[in-house]
Amino acid sequence: MVDSQLRDRIPSFGKKEGGGNQSVSLSNMSAFTSGNSRTIGEIFAIVLVAVIIIGGTEFALRTFEVPQYVLPTPSEIIVALFTDFHFIAPHLGHTLVELLSGYAIGASIGLILAAVITQFPFAEKIIAPYILMLVTTPMLALVPLLILRFGFGYEPRIIAVALASGPMVMINAATGFRRVDLAKIALARSYGASTMQIFIKIRVPMALPMIIVGLMIGAIFGLLTAVGAEMVGGGFGLGNRLTTFSSTIQMPQFFAVILILALLGISIYVIFFLIGKKWASWES
Amino acid sequence: MNAPRPTPAKLRIDGATKYYETKSGLVHALEDFSAEVRDGEFACVLGPSGCGKTTLLWSMAGLHSLTAGQVLLDNQPVTKPHPEISMVFQEANLLPWRNLQKNIEFPFEIKRQNPADHRDRVRQLLQRVGLDGFQNKFPRELSGGMQQRAAIVRALSLDPSVLLMDEPFGALDAFTRDEMNLLLEEIWLETRKTILFITHNIAEAVFLSDRIFVMSARPGRLHRVYDVDFERPRDLSITTTPRFFEMVNEIKAQIDHKVTAPTKMRAADAA
Question: Which of A87, A253, B92, B202 is the most exposed place for a label (fewest CB within 10 A)?
Answer without folding.
Answer: A87
